[in-house]
Amino acid sequence: MIADALRAARTGLLFAAGPFDAVWRRLTGRNGLPPLWLRRHTGSVAAFESAARETSAFLDRLGVFQDPPRLVLDVGCGAGAMVEELRRRLPAEGRYVGFDVHAPSIRWCRRRWASDPRLVFEIAPLASPYGSAAGRPVESYRFPVQDGQADLVLAKSVFTHLVRDEARHYLAETRRVLRPGRPAVVTAFLYEAGAPGVETAFPHPAGDGTRLKSRARPTAAVAFEKSRFVSMIEEAGLRLQWHSEGFYPGRPRRDAQDVLLLGI
User: Fold this and answer.
1) What is the C-alpha to C-alpha distance for residues 177 and 149, in angstroms, rounded to an integer?
2) What is the pLDDT along the chain (264 residues), one digit of tens a residue?
3) HSE-CB for 177 with a 13 A CA cutoff
Protein backbone atom coordinates (compact mmCIF):
# COMPACT_ATOMS: atom_id res chain seq x y z
CA MET A 1 0.00 0.00 0.00
CA ILE A 2 1.10 3.57 -0.67
CA ALA A 3 0.64 4.56 2.98
CA ASP A 4 2.82 1.68 4.16
CA ALA A 5 5.52 2.56 1.63
CA LEU A 6 5.49 6.20 2.71
CA ARG A 7 5.68 5.24 6.37
CA ALA A 8 8.64 2.92 5.66
CA ALA A 9 10.39 5.70 3.72
CA ARG A 10 9.86 8.13 6.59
CA THR A 11 11.29 5.65 9.07
CA GLY A 12 14.30 5.16 6.81
CA LEU A 13 14.94 8.90 6.63
CA LEU A 14 14.63 9.26 10.40
CA PHE A 15 16.96 6.32 10.92
CA ALA A 16 19.50 7.91 8.57
CA ALA A 17 19.27 11.13 10.58
CA GLY A 18 20.07 9.20 13.74
CA PRO A 19 23.74 10.26 14.04
CA PHE A 20 22.80 13.94 13.86
CA ASP A 21 20.07 13.37 16.43
CA ALA A 22 22.55 11.59 18.70
CA VAL A 23 24.85 14.63 18.61
CA TRP A 24 21.89 16.91 19.44
CA ARG A 25 20.90 14.68 22.37
CA ARG A 26 24.43 14.77 23.78
CA LEU A 27 24.70 18.54 23.41
CA THR A 28 21.33 19.14 25.09
CA GLY A 29 21.76 16.57 27.87
CA ARG A 30 19.05 14.28 26.51
CA ASN A 31 21.04 11.07 26.14
CA GLY A 32 18.21 9.19 27.82
CA LEU A 33 15.83 9.83 24.94
CA PRO A 34 15.18 7.06 22.41
CA PRO A 35 16.54 7.58 18.89
CA LEU A 36 14.66 9.80 16.49
CA TRP A 37 12.90 7.05 14.54
CA LEU A 38 11.54 5.47 17.74
CA ARG A 39 10.32 8.83 19.06
CA ARG A 40 8.46 9.41 15.79
CA HIS A 41 6.91 5.94 15.90
CA THR A 42 4.71 6.96 18.82
CA GLY A 43 3.66 10.38 17.54
CA SER A 44 5.05 13.86 17.15
CA VAL A 45 8.80 14.07 17.80
CA ALA A 46 8.43 17.60 19.18
CA ALA A 47 5.80 16.46 21.69
CA PHE A 48 7.58 13.32 22.95
CA GLU A 49 8.84 14.93 26.16
CA SER A 50 6.20 17.62 26.66
CA ALA A 51 3.27 15.21 26.24
CA ALA A 52 4.72 12.96 28.94
CA ARG A 53 5.13 15.88 31.33
CA GLU A 54 1.61 17.11 30.64
CA THR A 55 0.15 13.64 31.17
CA SER A 56 2.07 13.27 34.41
CA ALA A 57 0.84 16.65 35.67
CA PHE A 58 -2.70 15.65 34.72
CA LEU A 59 -2.39 12.41 36.70
CA ASP A 60 -1.15 14.42 39.66
CA ARG A 61 -4.22 16.65 39.47
CA LEU A 62 -6.42 13.54 39.43
CA GLY A 63 -4.74 12.46 42.65
CA VAL A 64 -3.78 9.00 41.42
CA PHE A 65 -0.37 9.21 43.14
CA GLN A 66 -1.61 10.33 46.56
CA ASP A 67 -1.42 6.70 47.61
CA PRO A 68 1.69 5.61 45.63
CA PRO A 69 0.85 2.70 43.32
CA ARG A 70 2.72 -0.51 43.99
CA LEU A 71 2.19 -1.75 40.44
CA VAL A 72 1.68 0.44 37.39
CA LEU A 73 0.62 -1.07 34.05
CA ASP A 74 1.49 1.11 31.04
CA VAL A 75 -0.62 -0.17 28.14
CA GLY A 76 1.03 0.58 24.79
CA CYS A 77 4.15 2.04 26.41
CA GLY A 78 5.99 2.50 23.10
CA ALA A 79 9.54 3.76 23.53
CA GLY A 80 8.95 4.59 27.19
CA ALA A 81 7.76 8.19 27.01
CA MET A 82 6.07 7.88 30.42
CA VAL A 83 8.63 5.69 32.17
CA GLU A 84 10.67 8.40 33.89
CA GLU A 85 7.55 10.22 35.04
CA LEU A 86 6.06 7.03 36.47
CA ARG A 87 9.11 5.41 37.99
CA ARG A 88 10.01 8.42 40.10
CA ARG A 89 6.61 8.03 41.75
CA LEU A 90 7.05 4.33 42.47
CA PRO A 91 7.88 3.31 46.03
CA ALA A 92 11.10 1.35 46.56
CA GLU A 93 9.16 -1.92 46.41
CA GLY A 94 7.00 -0.76 43.48
CA ARG A 95 6.85 -2.28 40.03
CA TYR A 96 6.23 -0.90 36.56
CA VAL A 97 5.08 -3.13 33.68
CA GLY A 98 4.92 -1.72 30.16
CA PHE A 99 3.94 -3.57 27.02
CA ASP A 100 3.71 -2.73 23.35
CA VAL A 101 3.33 -4.40 19.97
CA HIS A 102 6.44 -2.61 18.62
CA ALA A 103 9.35 -4.92 19.41
CA PRO A 104 12.15 -2.41 18.64
CA SER A 105 10.69 0.02 21.18
CA ILE A 106 10.51 -2.67 23.87
CA ARG A 107 14.06 -3.84 23.18
CA TRP A 108 15.30 -0.25 23.48
CA CYS A 109 13.41 0.22 26.78
CA ARG A 110 14.95 -2.96 28.18
CA ARG A 111 18.44 -1.65 27.41
CA ARG A 112 17.73 1.89 28.59
CA TRP A 113 16.37 0.91 32.02
CA ALA A 114 18.25 -2.36 32.55
CA SER A 115 19.66 -1.04 35.84
CA ASP A 116 16.24 -0.67 37.50
CA PRO A 117 14.83 -4.09 38.44
CA ARG A 118 11.44 -2.54 39.23
CA LEU A 119 10.80 -1.97 35.51
CA VAL A 120 9.58 -4.75 33.22
CA PHE A 121 8.91 -4.42 29.50
CA GLU A 122 6.94 -6.99 27.51
CA ILE A 123 6.43 -7.45 23.77
CA ALA A 124 2.78 -8.07 22.91
CA PRO A 125 3.00 -10.61 20.04
CA LEU A 126 -0.05 -9.30 18.21
CA ALA A 127 -0.84 -8.66 14.58
CA SER A 128 -0.76 -4.88 14.26
CA PRO A 129 0.16 -2.23 11.68
CA TYR A 130 2.20 -0.66 14.51
CA GLY A 131 4.19 -3.82 15.10
CA SER A 132 4.31 -6.99 13.02
CA ALA A 133 1.78 -8.23 10.50
CA ALA A 134 2.30 -11.71 11.94
CA GLY A 135 0.92 -12.44 15.35
CA ARG A 136 -2.16 -13.30 17.36
CA PRO A 137 -5.45 -11.39 17.24
CA VAL A 138 -5.67 -8.49 19.67
CA GLU A 139 -8.73 -10.09 21.28
CA SER A 140 -6.62 -13.06 22.40
CA TYR A 141 -4.07 -11.04 24.36
CA ARG A 142 -3.86 -11.26 28.13
CA PHE A 143 -2.25 -8.26 29.84
CA PRO A 144 1.01 -9.33 31.57
CA VAL A 145 -0.34 -8.72 35.10
CA GLN A 146 -2.20 -11.05 37.43
CA ASP A 147 -5.86 -10.52 38.36
CA GLY A 148 -6.49 -7.53 40.61
CA GLN A 149 -2.81 -6.58 40.99
CA ALA A 150 -2.53 -3.21 39.18
CA ASP A 151 -2.83 -0.06 41.28
CA LEU A 152 -2.82 2.13 38.17
CA VAL A 153 -3.58 1.23 34.57
CA LEU A 154 -2.61 3.88 32.02
CA ALA A 155 -3.71 3.53 28.39
CA LYS A 156 -2.61 6.73 26.66
CA SER A 157 -3.39 6.94 22.93
CA VAL A 158 -4.25 3.25 22.77
CA PHE A 159 -8.02 3.15 22.24
CA THR A 160 -7.55 5.66 19.44
CA HIS A 161 -6.00 2.77 17.46
CA LEU A 162 -8.40 -0.05 18.38
CA VAL A 163 -11.54 -1.10 16.55
CA ARG A 164 -14.65 -1.92 18.58
CA ASP A 165 -14.07 -5.58 19.50
CA GLU A 166 -10.42 -4.89 20.31
CA ALA A 167 -11.44 -2.00 22.54
CA ARG A 168 -13.98 -4.19 24.32
CA HIS A 169 -11.27 -6.75 25.03
CA TYR A 170 -8.82 -4.16 26.35
CA LEU A 171 -11.50 -2.76 28.65
CA ALA A 172 -12.21 -6.27 29.94
CA GLU A 173 -8.49 -6.85 30.54
CA THR A 174 -8.28 -3.51 32.34
CA ARG A 175 -11.07 -4.68 34.65
CA ARG A 176 -9.36 -8.01 35.22
CA VAL A 177 -6.00 -6.60 36.32
CA LEU A 178 -7.22 -3.53 38.21
CA ARG A 179 -7.18 -3.65 41.99
CA PRO A 180 -10.55 -2.65 43.53
CA GLY A 181 -10.50 0.97 44.62
CA ARG A 182 -7.66 1.88 42.27
CA PRO A 183 -7.88 3.93 39.04
CA ALA A 184 -7.47 3.30 35.35
CA VAL A 185 -6.87 6.31 33.09
CA VAL A 186 -7.57 5.93 29.38
CA THR A 187 -7.76 8.36 26.49
CA ALA A 188 -9.97 8.08 23.42
CA PHE A 189 -11.53 10.06 20.61
CA LEU A 190 -15.21 10.39 21.54
CA TYR A 191 -17.97 12.17 19.66
CA GLU A 192 -21.61 13.00 20.12
CA ALA A 193 -23.93 11.51 17.52
CA GLY A 194 -25.02 14.19 15.08
CA ALA A 195 -22.47 16.76 16.24
CA PRO A 196 -21.42 19.16 13.48
CA GLY A 197 -18.00 18.41 12.06
CA VAL A 198 -17.97 14.70 12.87
CA GLU A 199 -18.07 13.66 9.24
CA THR A 200 -15.18 15.98 8.43
CA ALA A 201 -12.95 14.88 11.29
CA PHE A 202 -13.77 11.17 10.98
CA PRO A 203 -15.38 10.77 7.55
CA HIS A 204 -15.81 6.98 7.45
CA PRO A 205 -18.56 5.32 9.52
CA ALA A 206 -17.73 1.75 10.58
CA GLY A 207 -21.36 0.85 11.31
CA ASP A 208 -20.80 -0.04 14.96
CA GLY A 209 -20.75 3.32 16.70
CA THR A 210 -17.23 4.07 15.52
CA ARG A 211 -15.90 6.34 12.82
CA LEU A 212 -12.54 6.21 11.06
CA LYS A 213 -10.24 8.92 9.82
CA SER A 214 -8.93 6.64 7.05
CA ARG A 215 -10.66 3.67 5.51
CA ALA A 216 -7.34 2.51 4.01
CA ARG A 217 -5.75 2.50 7.49
CA PRO A 218 -8.67 1.76 9.86
CA THR A 219 -6.62 1.92 13.06
CA ALA A 220 -4.82 5.16 12.18
CA ALA A 221 -7.46 7.06 14.20
CA VAL A 222 -10.68 5.59 15.57
CA ALA A 223 -13.45 7.66 17.19
CA PHE A 224 -16.20 6.14 19.35
CA GLU A 225 -19.67 7.49 19.88
CA LYS A 226 -19.59 8.60 23.50
CA SER A 227 -22.72 6.77 24.72
CA ARG A 228 -21.59 3.51 23.15
CA PHE A 229 -18.11 3.76 24.61
CA VAL A 230 -19.59 4.35 28.07
CA SER A 231 -21.76 1.26 27.54
CA MET A 232 -18.64 -0.73 26.65
CA ILE A 233 -16.99 0.48 29.87
CA GLU A 234 -19.98 -0.70 31.91
CA GLU A 235 -20.19 -4.02 30.06
CA ALA A 236 -16.56 -4.66 31.05
CA GLY A 237 -17.48 -4.24 34.72
CA LEU A 238 -15.87 -0.81 35.08
CA ARG A 239 -17.38 2.51 36.16
CA LEU A 240 -16.78 5.88 34.55
CA GLN A 241 -15.82 8.07 37.51
CA TRP A 242 -14.74 11.23 35.72
CA HIS A 243 -14.50 12.49 32.16
CA SER A 244 -12.52 15.36 30.67
CA GLU A 245 -13.91 16.27 27.28
CA GLY A 246 -11.36 16.57 24.51
CA PHE A 247 -11.91 17.69 20.96
CA TYR A 248 -15.48 17.01 19.94
CA PRO A 249 -15.93 17.96 16.29
CA GLY A 250 -17.80 21.23 16.17
CA ARG A 251 -16.47 22.51 19.50
CA PRO A 252 -13.47 24.73 20.17
CA ARG A 253 -10.36 22.60 20.29
CA ARG A 254 -8.96 21.73 23.71
CA ASP A 255 -7.02 18.52 24.32
CA ALA A 256 -7.15 16.27 21.27
CA GLN A 257 -8.37 13.24 23.19
CA ASP A 258 -10.95 12.71 25.90
CA VAL A 259 -9.53 11.51 29.21
CA LEU A 260 -11.55 9.02 31.26
CA LEU A 261 -10.99 7.96 34.85
CA LEU A 262 -12.29 4.45 35.41
CA GLY A 263 -12.70 2.29 38.50
CA ILE A 264 -14.41 -0.85 39.71
Assistant:
1) 6
2) 555 555 555 556 556 655 656 565 666 766 678 888 788 777 677 678 888 999 999 899 999 999 999 999 999 999 999 999 999 999 999 999 999 999 999 999 999 999 999 999 999 999 999 988 889 999 999 999 999 999 999 999 999 999 999 999 999 999 999 999 999 999 999 998 888 888 888 999 998 899 999 999 999 999 999 999 999 999 999 999 999 888 655 555 545 799 999 999
3) 23
pTM higher than 0.70, yes or no? yes
How far CA 264 is from CA of 59, 87, 140, 236, in Å, comes to 18, 24, 23, 10
| Domains parsed from the chain with CATH numbers | 44-263 (3.40.50.150)
